[in-house]
Amino acid sequence: MRLNKYLADCGVASRRACDKLIAEGRVAVNGKIVDQMGVVVNPDNDHVTVNGKRVAVKHKTYYILLHKPKGYVTTVSDELGRRTVMDLIDIKTRLYPVGRLDYDTEGALILTNDGDVANKLTHPKNQVSKVYVCRISGEITNAEVAKLERGVEIDGKLTLPAGVKVLESDVHHSRVELTIREGRNRQVRRMFEAIGKDVEFLKRVAVGEIRLGGLSRGKYRFLNEKEIAYLKSLK
Ligand code: URA
User: How far apart are CA 140 and CA 175, in angstroms?
Assistant: First the structure.
């Protein structure tokens, strides 16, 4: 690759401005100042500096939202040979799912190669909200709603206060929107278990300010600038 293009790819400056830096003798390749035009470098092996400081190509960051369907595991590979969410993504760069949805759960799953953002999203101190729509067996009573809101015991520890909205409820089933701010293993299913209810269907509709909206099952989209700014704004 030509040196000026490589420097531009590293974010040093525009190609033309990099030509100027080269002409001024401020660029070195493998310790030797290069001040002619047209020099070619190998980005994998050559050590390139500008004003004595090493430069490197910044890797492009991706932030995507996948509508995970049921029947996929949220890992990069699965020892049981089951389908993984990576089978639904045709981006060549290695991306990683942020947090986890169970095999039987569908909905919003963020994938990124930005480790910093992934940490911020999952760090307990940030208490990022996750909103689930749950269909459960039987009617849900006000007392049960109050229990979920206050916190129920899972593994000997109370869950944080949760938001509960009953969308519909009859003797057969109820549909409940549950907002939680932790990410314990199978938390939603176990919260309902704690009040004696079976979860028949579980879908995550939002992670923080990122909403699933009308994204079809199995499809993904790139997050927009506002959504990425939100993710980066987390402390
Ligand atoms: N809670 C669950 O029980 N399952 C999920 O997949 C996510 C939250």
Answer: 9
Nearest C-alpha to atom 4 of ligand 1 is from which residue?
Answer: 186
What are the tokens at 94? 């290695």
Atom of ligand 1 nearest to the CA of 190: 3
Q: Is 104 in the pocket of ligand 1 (CB under 6 A)?
A: no
pLDDT in tens, 4-29: 999 988 889 889 999 999 999 999 99
User: At the fourth CATH level, which superfamily is domain 129-207?
Assistant: Alpha-L RNA-binding motif (3.30.70.1560)
User: Tens of pLDDT along 177-193?
Assistant: 999 999 999 999 999 99
Query: CATH number for the 3-54 domain, one of 2.60.300.12, 1.25.40.20, 3.40.50.300, 3.10.290.10?
Result: 3.10.290.10
Q: Integer distance in angstroms from the first to the last C-alpha of the chain?
A: 38
Is the domain 61-126+213-235 a CATH 3.30.70.580 member? yes
Dist. CA 134 → ligand 1 center (Å): 10
The whole-model pTM stands at 0.81
